[in-house]
Design brief:
By secondary structure, the chain is α+β, with helices and mostly antiparallel strands. Among the domains are: about 30 residues, no CATH class; about 50 residues. The strands form two sheets. A three-stranded antiparallel beta sheet has the order 1-2-3, with no helix packed on it. The chain is elongated. Helices cover about 40% and strands about 20% of the residues.
Length: about 130
Amino acid sequence: MHETTLSGVILRQSSSTGAGSPDTAQQTPASPPAPGPINPARLAAAERKSAAALLGAKDAAAVLGIGERAFHMLRDQPWMPKPVTFGPRLLRWSRAELEAAVASMPRAAAKGTEHPNLAAARRRKIEALKGAA
């Protein structure tokens, strides 16, 4: 029996009926490769990356438990640490500063309290409705 693999499909042809005749080919899906053993070098590299002192935006967002887009939106907040700048497009954040910033992040207000900006907007809207009447 002759086997040929083409794009994930194994073609098996019987050698007794003539290899190469298309009517004798049987198509069977190829099984996915079995996962190999854990590569210690890769594991060590991943551990070094997670323990790195300076992090890119994606890793810094992961430290805060948010997405990368949300991280970029929060960069200008006063409680966020400023990045270390290596160039105009190469910014890194200190892991220690990010972890310290988590402690000083604003917390949710107590139930029943309203954010000052929302309260001011609500008051303006009420005043505008009173003025129109």
